Each structure stands twice: as structure tokens, then as C-alpha cells.
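Example 3.
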Amino acid sequence: MNELISKDLTEKIMEYGRIKGFSDMEVYYSEGENLTVKIHGKKIDSFNLSQNEGLSFRGLFKDKMGYSYSEKVDDTSIEMLVNEALENATIIDSDDKENIFEGGKNYQTIDHFNEALAKVKEEDKIAFALNMEKEALSIDNRIVSVQYCVYGEGYGAVSIHNSKGLYLADKSNLAYAYISVVAKQGEEIKTGMAYRVTDDFSKLNPKEMADEAVSEALSMIGAQSIRSGQYEIVLRNSAVCDLLEAFTGVFSAEAVHKNMSLLKGKLNTTIASENISLVDDPHLPEGFASASFDGEGYPTGKKNIIEKGVLKTYLHNMKTAAIDGIESTGNASRTSYKSSIGISPTNFYIKKGRHSLNELIRDIERGIYIIELQGLHSGLDPVSGDFSLSSLGFLIEKGEIKRAVNQITVSGNFFDMLHEVEMVGEDLKFELPSGSYIGSPSLKIKRLAVSGD
Amino acid sequence: MLSNVVIDKILDAALSTGGDFAEIFVEDKTNSNIMLLGGKIEKTMSGRDYGIGIRVFKEVFSVYAYTNSVNEENLVHTALKAAAAIQDAKKVDRQELRNVTIENKIIPVCIMPDTINKHRKVEIMKRAYAAAYDYDEMITQVSVNYLDYIQKIIIANSEGLLVEDVRVRTRLSIQSIASGANEMQTGFFGPGASKGFEFLENLDVEGYGQETSRIAKTMMNATYAPSGRMPVIIDNGFGGVIFHEACGHGLEATSVAKGNSVFADKKGQLVASKWVSAVDDGTIESGWGSSNIDDEGSPTTRNVLIENGVLKNFMVDKLNGRRMNMSPTGSSRRQSYKYAPTSRMTNTFILDGPLSVEEIISDTENGLYAKYMGGGSVNPATGEFNFAVMEGYRIRNGKIAEPLRGATLIGTGMEVLKKIDKVGNNLALGQGMCGSESGSIPANVGQPMIRVSEMIVGGREGE
């Protein structure tokens, strides 16, 4: 692949860095292009186009890693990049040693750039989005408006170039669509949404998405709260994904080392019920967080995090792996050129089980099927594991769905809940990618506390 | 950053296909972040954001394009690409650029943060750490995050506006973790302001550090909150997140213009109890959500949203103003040049009422007292909101009793506003980051102590 950033510029930056006293150095570069089309009232409402790039420099100065970045990728930034990184290195007093990687042997080839997607005509994208809104408004006269109707696509590429001679580059593209509809019956207003992400435009079906959003909104009409108490719970796959995403940090070795994860000291012990296996697979076909190398340039690989309830490994980068005297798991993350090296999962999912949704529900005497958890950035504490989240769902009585439920919260503790998973569904689903790509099937939980009327 | 000649060329290109309004937003921002964990500086990052956003309207159709390749050729090319989405034979003339100088009344920075050696910032962070860590043996980990930025912007549009401004912000966030047997609880404080290094120098960092650890320790010793409907007293400062979520987002033209807000057709009507008056005020000196001008170049205002329970006004941006036939209110904001601006909150708060804190508490037989709130969220279309109580207490017989953990408060916007039956006189503001359509932006929430006569408390009854 062609060099993304001029070699001349990266060489000049490292050259100046060497003069200033840096030993090992790295230039990380990323670029992207995005398009978003929003539809409202049978017309294009807005059109967004972007091209962006940014560069991050990091280097070892007296054994401390200093970082800097710039979105102005040209010669005028060289001095600023090196000088900022230098000052930043001088205030680091952490005992943990961060290094520049000399490169690995086996990098899995991953092709996640679809030429066909890059060639889809603009009018087809607009037609798709217009269609999706039209479908949504034609299904049922209780659908009074479409809150969001969006088609988007993005291309991104990254490269890592360091003073130890490593050069790695990667590019990918994807398309996504989402729709959120508003249903009104009397004074009651409900919303429902659907989303898809793909690298194949022809797989986006406007009618199917409209149907899904509309039926979700309509299904919530007549929703009421419910009496507080302990209920058997089925968490829909998408709700488990949201919860799992909020707690991914507890699997990071950095959080463990810094006494910020309750999984400290739990390796090779049972932390979940036997039917739970959790996998991080950067080579998953059709995984939208797939990568052949991580944020440090380390080769990635598949690993089981939880195997039949037993915690097998934490997620590591080179720094945390060195502390534990093991190899990195290839989970060094670089959220963007503006962030330093952290740790995050790639394609991260709970393995599917054997049960249909009907099987998860049918033996429940009185319980709730939760389809949505809200306020995940505030209603849970990743450190304690406690959560209390506003939720939407359906009351289950004698194995059957009875009515919609809203204005409730579902509360529990993530670490306790992992032990109380009684059944695992067969409906593995992934949520929209956000750096990581989180997936889960629906889960039957022994019980959780529900607050309502 | 850009010469008038280049700006002219970009605006001409943007209007070349019949657009009736064009705007450019140039941003040059230096950021500095320092992270301390366990007493040591673990991570630092600093650098420069640099880019330009171009917006074109044709009536209520809008196009937004951005790039950080800011040479003249690419900028004109980007403007033409944006314009290509509009095709109208009727061209609209634009007005000649008039350079407007704004008087900096709102962000009077004494010490620009980039003139201060980072070691001095680190010293202050370590003082915060020491105060928090030494607070109690139960405190096992403390993190301290520091950030500052200097954002220089130029806004120019086809109505002839050409204006520059500088925004400076500084924030210190502290998180403490208390540990017991196989259990952890956290406390958090994140004071910030539109100020330079003087903000940090004058900050009672020891006080904040101790308070953060006190919260974590108190929550270690707390029991789980009860469940169900009960009176809820929410204290001042960050407690104002209730108004932000329950009402504020629903008053943004972003939701109102398309009818996606429960407040859309309620102007002039009673939407809250008569005790409630609330404003969005972007003009507060050094306020975390303040600025001289908004991100469309309009001067910020003090916008009365609700007066004695009656809905008075919305927060309106240029584009949605066209949809609603209303003038902008100086509250159009964006995270960066990567986002088209839209109506957002700045510093939004409920005004002082007549009651003392003691009166409100002693008048409440039983219920929940939320001393500090965490964040929250809302679905503006349904009005359903939720937010988390960081430090809560049971109220028994008009007195604050045992501490409670893990409570989330839920409700629907208008219902809860109408149930605010007591408003105190201790107005204070709290700082947060608000995420919505145009990105994550600094916003103040605020209120005096209030009481909601009845709300659903999401706890864990029976434990």
C-alpha cells in the first residue's frame, strides 16, 4: 500500500527528535473521509462531508514516553510536536516502562476495505435513505414523524512508522444506517429505532429497517410502570451489548494493576456462570474492529477472556504484559491520534448458546424481557460494578409476553450478574462499532431488582 | 489564520450553486491533558487541533463539510463539493465582509495556560492527590486529571459577518476509590471554568480532594437505595442536571423545530410548577459554558426559558430559526470544526426560590435526599429521562438519615417539572460535558435545592 503520510515528513520529525534527545520514536498517522445524509420530511435535510487527518508523535526521553499530536500535518508542526512531547516526557514519573516496538513476525492479513462500497453512487445512497423514511411513514398511521433517518459511510486508514524500522499501514471502510421513529396514540408518544452496519451497500434493506423501528415503537404503546420487586429477567442481546461495553474496562490489565478493577486476583477463577464464554477475536470475519496489528504495532490474535465461566486472561498492551511477565495480547489501543496508548478490546463477544428467545421466556412465572437500557454513561459504576438503569421492556407472565413496561429501573451488580446467567440465547448480535465491536446473545438472568410504582 | 481574500473565495464557491447562506468556521486550538494515577503522572498528551468547517443553506436544507487541509486550493475545492449538493439557478448575493471586533467581557483570562511550565500544574495535581489519598485508610486509589485549552476561532458568513474570538478553559477532575472486602465505591468532583491557570492557582484543591474521598468513603458505608415513588430533595450545583435532562434538551430548537419534543407546542403554557423559573445564560463571566459569541458568531445572551412555570422561550440556532420563524438566541454550539453547530445549552439553571435548605428538609417527612448527582440522559421525543445519584441519603422524620448508594431517578419531563413543590435559596452551578448532536461541549448545570413531591427512585428494594 502507498504511504499515507510522506516519509520525508516522518523522517524530519524523528530527525529533529533525535537532536532534542529522544532515543526511540514513533509517528502514528490516521486519515479518513466520511459522508452522512440525513432525511427529514421526504427531503434531504442535511448532507455532511469530511476529510480529516492527524498525526501523533511519541518518543522516549530519558526512558519516559512523551506524546504530542497535530491536525496540521506539515513541516510547520515539527518543532511543536517534538517540544511538546519533550515537556510531556519530563513530567512523567510513572514507574511503568513504555516502549517502542521493533515489530512482530506474523501479521494476519485482514482485508476490510471493500472497493465496491467505495463505488456506490451518491444518488443510490440518497434514494436508500429517502426510501427508508417513506417506508416508515407508510406502515401505520400512528407513526407521526421520523426523528432520525440517516445513511452514513466512512473510510479510514492508519499507519505506524517508528525509529526501530517498523512500518505498518491499514485501511478500511464501512457503511451504516439508522432510523428512529415517533409513534403517537392519544397523548402517548413512543420511539423506536433500528440500525445496521455493513461493508456491502446492497445488504441495506430500507423496508426491513423501517419495519423494525416501527414495530419497536408501536410495541411500546400502552407501556406502564410495574410494582417494585425482584424479577426474573431476560436481557435482549442489544441490552447486554450496551452493558458489556460499559464494563469492558474491568478486563484491562492496566485497570487491574492500578487497583481499579474488581477482577484483580481473579485469573483462573470462576467469575461467571458456566455457560458464559467471552472472546476477543481481532480476526473475526465481518468484525468491524478487526485488525492485524494493534495501537503499538503488535500483532493481534484471538483469545478467550472467559472460558466456561473461568477468567483466562486480562487484555494487555506491551507495558502491562511486561509487568506481568507475559506477551502482549495485542490490545493496545489508540482511540485516535489525540490519545495515548491504552487498552481496549477488538471484536469482543459472548459466545452464543443454544436457546431461542422463546425458550428463554417460556419457563418464567413472572419476569421482564428488557429490550433497552438507558443512561449507561451515568447509571453505572464500572469500578463497583453497580448499575441502576432506566429500562424499557415487556412483562412476562406464565411464560408469555403480556404488556409493555416503561418507567422502571433495573438494578444489580455486573460481577454478581455474571454468576446468575441461567440461559444463553442463540441470537448473537453486535452493536454499532465504536473502536471496539461488542456482541452478545440474549441472556436469561436469575433475578434483578426492578423499581417502579 | 486565513486572509480575507481566501475567505471571500471560499464563500463565493460555497454560494456558487444557489445556496442562500454560507458560513465558515476556522478553529486553531491547543489542548493539554495530564493524568495522574496513584500519585504518579502516568500519561500526558498535548497538541493542536486545526481545521475549517464550511456550511451552506438553501432554505432549510443544509450542507456541512470540513477538512484540516487548509490550503486555499483544497478549501475552495471543499466549498465547491459542499455546494454541489445544492442546485438552484437563482443565485443569492452575499454581503461584503465587515470585520466585527468583539469586546472580551466574558472570558477575562489572567494567565494563559500555555505560558505556565507543566511542572507547576503537576504540583497542584499532586496536592489534590495527597489530600484525597490521605483522607482515609479506606481510600485505595485516586486519579487526578487536568486539562486546559485555548481555542481560537474565526467565523465569517455571507451576511458579511467576520469575527474572531478566543476561548480558554481549565478543568481539574478528581476520582477517589474506597475499597472494602471485594467491593469498591467511587467519588468524583470536576471543577472547571472559562479561565486560565489562575483558576487552578485559586482553587481549593485540598478541599475538593477531601470532598471526593469523603463521598467514596460515605458510599462504602451506605446501603442500597429503596425502590418506588417518594419525595426527592435534590441539592444545588450539579443537582441541576435534573433540569438539564428533564427540560433543557427538550427546549433546544434541535428537537423543537421538527416537533420531536414534548415542549414543541407549549410556548406560553404552564409546563412547570409556579415555583420554577429557569434561564440559559451564556454571558456569565468565566462560566464553564460561557463564551463571548456562539459558534455562529452571535453574541451570547441570558435567555429566560421558564418564568413562574410558564414556557417563555426556546434555545434557537440559525438553521432551526428558519424552520421556526424565530431569531437565534446566541446558543448555537459545536464541539469543534468537525461538527455543524446547533442549538445547545450553555449555563442552564433554575433560579433561587424563597426557602432555606433547613425548611425544605424539615418539611419532608420521608424520602430521598440527593446531595450530589452523577450524569443523566433523556429521550426528548418522549421526555423520558434518567439520572444517577452519586451521594444519597434517606430522609426520616424531616431529618437527613443513613447514606444510600446506587439510586437512579427516572421520570418524564413535564410531569417532574410540575411536581417541583419547593425551591431553595442556595443557587450554585456545577460543571459537566454535554453530549448531543453537535458533539461534546462544556456546559454548566445548576439550581438551588429543590424538592420533587414524587419521583420513581430506582434502587434495590428488599436487600
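Chain A touches chain B through 80 residues (CB under 8 Å). Residues 149 and 179 of chain A are 4 Å apart (CA to CA).
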